[in-house]
Write a structure and sequence with these properties.
The chain is an alpha/beta fold and 262 residues long. The chain has 11 helices and 14 strands. The protein folds into 2 domains: 2-69 and 187-261, 3-Layer(aba) Sandwich (Rossmann fold); 83-183, HAD superfamily/HAD-like (Rossmann fold), CATH 3.40.50. The chain has helices spanning 22-32, 47-56, 69-80, 92-100, 111-114, 131-142, 166-177, 190-195, 211-220, 235-240, 252-261, and strands at 2-7, 13-14, 17-18, 36-40, 66-68, 86-89, 120-123, 146-149, 155-158, 161-164, 182-183, 203-208, 224-228, 247-249. The chain is globular. Bound molecules: magnesium ion (MG).
């Protein structure tokens, strides 16, 4: 059977507006018993917060069906690294995921005294970023702490225009530390290992709106790459890019028609 991975923003909704066909496709998949998960590179919210957002839009899925890069990062840490003290540059979602695996967090307020004790610096999008946070993250990484990023997105679209994403914060630390981070989210493979714990189908489809994350990820994991044009990238971007989707559809609505006949 086929398992489907959906990106959320630009695929199922835009901001707080549901994209036509999103509700129907989820109902269709549930009816047919086709396994799927929702995957986002955003680490600022927890899966529970996403479930509530989706529910407000009318989409009812289980919390276990939602994977954020924050969740994947925490799970990956627990699976591959020794328990240690973590300094987080990130939002509430990422902090809660680190707490959920039971690892100690060293807070920015105590970092002045404790930065030498930091074993892991975990970096996601942090709208409360300060120079102090960058400073202690840099000191800790230069002191030997592991440098881990949730996702590489350098920017993301907001109502005011294009604004800096997690990748821009990670870039600042790369320059300051002269080190390369381990990045967990799309298009990289660590998140795939975490998805596999929940979605173990032989054939996988990835549905997304971004070439550099969603479609590149699909290619890397040898999944069928389906691009919808309701988000960040358009046809012109596909023409210019070396990353080519296997299928391009105007929106998720046409994917539902495609599923019905296939
Ligand atoms: Mg998207």
């Amino acid at each position: 059977m086929t398992g489907i991975i959906f990106d959320m923003d630009g695929v199922l909704y835009r901001g707080n507006t549901l994209i036509e066909g999103a509700l129907e496709i989820v109902e269709f998949l549930k009816e047919r018993g086709i396994p799927f998960i929702f995957l986002t590179n955003n680490s600022t919210k927890t899966a529970e917060m996403y479930r509530e957002k989706l529910l407000r839009l009318g989409i009812d899925v289980k919390e276990e069906q939602i994977i954020t890069s924050g969740y994947a990062t925490a799970r990956y840490l627990r699976k591959h690294f020794k328990k240690g003290r973590v300094f987080v540059i990130g939002g509430r979602g990422l902090i809660e995921e680190i707490r959920n695996i039971g690892w100690e967090i060293i807070w920015p307020e105590e970092a002045g005294e404790k930065w030498r004790d930091i074993d892991y610096v975990v970096v996601g999008l942090d709208t409360g970023l300060t120079y102090e946070k960058l400073k202690y993250a840099t000191l800790a990484i230069r002191n030997g702490a592991e440098f881990i990023g949730t996702n590489p997105d350098t920017t993301y679209p907001s109502e005011e225009g294009i604004v800096p994403g997690a990748g821009s914060i990670i870039a600042a630390l790369k320059v300051a530390t002269e080190r390369e981070p381990l990045i967990i989210g799309k298009p990289y493979e660590p998140v795939w290992e975490i998805i596999r714990e929940k979605l173990n189908e032989k054939e996988i489809w990835v549905v997304g709106d971004r070439l550099d994350t969603d479609i590149a990820f699909a290619k890397r994991i040898k999944a069928k790459a389906i691009m919808v044009l309701t988000g960040v990238n358009g046809i012109q971007d596909v023409e210019k890019s070396e990353i080519k989707p296997d299928l391009i559809l105007p929106s998720i609505k046409e994917l539902l028609d495609y599923l019905r006949i296939s």
